[in-house]
Amino acid sequence: MLYLEGLTVQRGNKIVFSDFNTIIKSGSITLIKGKNGSGKSTLLRAIVGFTPLEKGTIKNDKKNVFNNNEEWVNNLIFLDTKTGLSKDLTVIENLNAWSTMKGWSSNKENLTMALKSVGMDKYADLYISQSSEGLKKRAALARLYLSFINKVDFWILDEPTNELDKTSLVLFKQLISKFLKQNGTIIIATHDLTIVEDQFNILDLDDFKKQRVS
Amino acid sequence: MNSIHSSWSNIFIAHIKRDILTNSRSLLDLISIVGFMILIIILFPLGLGPIKEKLNIVSNAVIWVGLILAIIPSLEKLLQKDFENGWLDQIATSPAPLEIIMLSKAISYWLIMLIPLIITSPIFAILLDMDLKNIPWLVISISAGSLAISLIGLSGSALILGARKGNILLPILIIPLMTPILIFGVGVNEAVKINESPFGNLFLLLALTLIYLVISPFISALLVRIAIGR
Amino acid sequence: MFDWLANPNRFKKITNKLEPLLMVISLLFIISGLYFSLFDSPKDYQQGDAVRIMYVHVPSAWLASFLYLSLAVSCIFYLVWKHPLADLISSSIAPIGALFSILTLITGSLWGKPMWGTWWVWDARLTSMLILFFFYLGFILLHNAFERKIDGSKSASVLAIIGLINLPIIKFSVDWWHTLHQPSSILKFDGPSIDNQMLIPLSFMIIGFGLFSLYLIIINVKTKLIEKKCEALILKLNLKEIL
Question: How many domains does chain C have?
Answer without folding.
Answer: 1
